[in-house]
Design a protein that fits this description.
- It is a single chain.
- The chain is an all-alpha fold.
- It has a single domain, classed as Four Helix Bundle (Hemerythrin (Met), subunit A) (Up-down Bundle).
- The chain has 5 helices and no strands.
- Helix 3 packs antiparallel against helix 4.
- The longest helix has about 35 residues.
- The relative contact order is 0.17.
Length: about 160
Amino acid sequence: MERPLVCQHLTASLTGPEHLADWSRVLLRHHRDIQTEIEQIVQLLKHPRCHLHRIEARLRRLSRAVLMHLELEACFLDPAVREVSGSDGEKLQGLRAGYESLRKAVMATADFLQREKLSHPALTLSAEQQDAITHLMNEIHARLEAEDRDYQQFREGWTCT
């Protein structure tokens, strides 16, 4: 698959396994930003009169952040891990599974929002809707925590054995 031109320019100076620690640090920082977004959504959900349109704006913002994060992983971390572990390496396959899991969670969020806007005219979120959004936030949070462990290893100098 051809990498986008912007990806080629961004990675030109920081390629190879020696930069795993650098990119791991960047991606861990991005995880913290995404976690802050999740926490803000959870706080909004606690309000008894939480409106679908307000939460929708936050969820869309979170979705954009996660999709950008996936692009960063694909541009930077994936090639570096491939060089270290080979195209069939366990770490590389684990990262790719994580990408897919996060992408599916984002798509599920978008589908959920669209379905709820079309099927429920009430603006205030029901308990079921709040539970569904909380479940989605937990799913994204869990995936990020799993990646955090891998990124921490890369940052500390993970090497292929």
